[in-house]
Amino acid sequence: MPLRKYVFKPGINKEGTNYSNEGGWFDADKVRFRKGRPERIGGWEKQSTSSFIGTCRKIYPYKSSVGTDYITLGTHQKFYVLEGGTYNDVTPIRETATNAITFSATDGSTTITATDTDHGAVTGDFVTFSQAVSLGGNITATVLNQEYQINSVPSVNTYTFTATATANSSDTGNGGSGVDGAYQLNSGLDVYVSSTGWGAGTWGASTWGSTSNLVSSNQLRLWSIDNFGDDTILNPRSDGIYYWDESSGTNNRAVNVTSLGGASNVPTKTFQIMLSDVDKHVIAFGCNPIGSSNLDPLLVRFSDTESITDWTPTATNQAGGVQLSMGSTIIGALRTRQEILIWTDVGIVSMRFVGAPFVFSFNEVANGPSLISPNAAVNANNQVYFMDNGGFYTYAGSAQRLPCTVLDYVLSDLNQGQAFKVFGAVNSIANEIMWFYPSGDSLEVDKYVMYNYLEQVWSIGTTTDDFVRTAWDEAYILNNPIAASKNSSTNNNNYLFAHEVGHSNDGSDFTAYIESSDFDLDPDGEKYMAVNKIIPDIEFRDQQSTTDDVTITIKGRDYPLQDLSTLSTVSVTPDSTFTNTRARSRQCAIKVSNSSADYGWRLGDLRLDIRPDGKR
Question: What residue spans define the domains of the chain?
Fold first, then answer.
């Protein structure tokens, strides 16, 4: 019989059964489609060999007026400015205690108990001590006068930390009176806590509208970041607005905008901030009204033009605010071309600059589609792409649902309890958008879904092989997109990675594969057939040697509900011609995979020599 060519439809399709998708691809990991052909994704390497503390859920790079590249990022415990290869800790100081702290130690222990009345700290916070003296033995002034992370908070007046030395019998008494302590911003949660108030149930029922996790800082530490010229404005969700002055250098911390000269009615609680693209208004989405400390989840306020401090509306400035009428809470906002999109829990509002006297107009542009999380919307291809609880959408003047061939696969496995960790990512190098999400009972992101917006095909994958990602930025000022990793064991040695660099996991191997749906070997699917020969068509990219290899596995089963079994495995190198195989079945599937570093592959058309045969 003549050779039979197999050309599979581009994209992963899991909306039907494996058998019903004959002629297509059914499963993949770390494989994309380009010009209709599957290929291994690009690799990644560390942006800096230095590491940072905490789970990063927001990255914001920008270039200063003199050409300095800054990468700012917020974790659930810290805020950093990466300049060159160094992560500079500019986390704001929440409170400074002066001559207020005393210490006690226990012989043979590294645990120190600090006493400070109404300290306001929580477990995981960082505090820097100064002016301490020795407790009398190993716990010297040098040991005490440094930054420590708080281990536990037994009471509102005490907390513990682990010293860098072990106390001896001379250290067991109280001591160190008159110590100063600089408390950094309270650590946020790394695991989402669901709300019980705003937006959690029917309007007017039970605790709807009460103070809840949606309007507190106890939900999940998410950040919004923007640059105000050379400087940075930052906001931990449901907290205040902070400011890092670039001219003061990376040795100085960000400060609360309320502490700056001329500060007037600056929001003290807000879900999200951003800078407008016209007239440089700082905008707060979901914030406290003037004269109140309670957060209004539908209130949008904006500062005067080119000001981060003046938020008091007057007849001579352009500060102001509007309470949205759609829904019960703002989920997120995204700056697009000539407008800002605001997602509430029931739809989308368009915010446009119109100038005095109204400054901004607000118009409802979609009713129904929302956001699954504050970071689930991205700009790409002159459109907005976003994910809500029921699907994927695009917006270019109106919201349109994206047909998705893996929709049920994603939504049925999504951990809705941690949905606020979902984030969108743009990789314009490959014309892709990805949404990273936690699946099953995972408390952290462990899967992604990928959409090629030019070819309109989908792919899927997992965050294995050290591919765990918690934040992503297209990073137009750099050569490659960047993403944040998470060390699940300590969470203290996390890195930023530049993507689409080579084909390795920071110099190590990673596995990529794609597997077809079942296809009948016999046209009618009745006879047993033998696959005697396979002629591969694979392009090796960035080939390192003639020993580079890709594995092609032929799997088979006789009936759709049987388990697939491996019938034959073929190793393909750049010099391969054909390989004889011994595979017999009614229906087959083809899997292409490799795990080696430093080279990629792209699949062409496979040809199989198939002949009638009996089962034996």
Answer: 4-22+525-612, 94-184
